[in-house]
Structures are given as C-alpha cells and as structure tokens.
Amino acid sequence: MSVVGVAPDREARTLTMTAEYDAPVEQVWRLWADPRLLERWWGPPTYPATVHEHDLRPGGRVVYSMTGPEGDTHYGWWRPGRVDPPTGLELEDGFGDADGTPAEGMPTTRVRVDIADAGGGRTRMTVTSTFPSAEAMDQMLQMGMAEGMREALGQTYPLLEGSAA
C-alpha cells in the first residue's frame, strides 16, 4: 500500500493525507500510541525522530526531536486534545525547544487523525492538519511539510507488515 491521497486546501487552510493499510485498526493506532514505534516513522527518513516524552492522554504532552543528516536537531511537541483509541486523535503540533516549550514566531497546527475500518481487513488513516492562517499554511508547505509527511507515512507500511488480521 501507499499514501493514497494528499489534498492541500488553501481556502480551508488544511492539508489532508490519507493512507491505507493491510492491517487492523488497532495496529494502525499503535503507530501513534507506542513511542518506540512512533520514532520509527515520524518525520522524513533523513530526519529520524527521538521521542523524549509521550503522554498521549487529553491534556498530556509529547516532546520529540528530529536529527538531520548534518547533525542538526529540531524539537517539536504535541498537546493531545481528544484521544479515542483506537480510532481517533486530535492534537496541537508545533516546533519548540528541548523542554517542549513552543517556539515563538512559528505556527502551530491542529491535527486530526481518523482511523477507520476500510473493509476487507484494511484500515484507512486520514491525517488532517489545519493551519491558523493561509500565511502559516504557506510557510509550513514551503518548509516541506507535505513532502515530509508523505515520506513519514511511507515509513509506516513496513512497520505494519504481517499484522493483518
């Protein structure tokens, strides 16, 4: 399988990515819920992630870093809102420092993850990022967010091989 859809919508200020898996819903949920699994796919392959904190409960916090090929390290954070295992998650996502403090001047996005049974033993995951403004969306897309997310999701497939029900 592969990423089956990438849909930027400037008017709605959203970027929606859809992937389908030959795996049960619960296994796809683990991509988000298991920090060791998360760090094997979150971010592009040339920027592997390390998860420093992982509290995926409403009001919790996730702090991670991604290290680039030149040894540069970039920190990010999530603030989970709605968490409905194994089918849904909403969170705020942003750049920050090693302590998870949000970076000033960088936009944050609201992310909604929907995981649903697609029939025939398949699962569809839809990740929708909503930006606070069209300018913020342009900034993030110019930074390579769409390509980075596509590459990140591309890394999820090998993690789920052999997990079909």
TrEMBL record:
Activator of Hsp90 ATPase homologue 1/2-like C-terminal domain mapped to chain residues: 22-155
SUPFAM superfamilies, alphabetized: Bet v1-like (SSF55961)
Coiled coil: none
One Pfam family cited in the UniProt record for this chain: AHSA1
Family from the record: Belongs to the AHA1 family.
Record-given protein name: SRPBCC domain-containing protein
Native organism: Vallicoccus soli
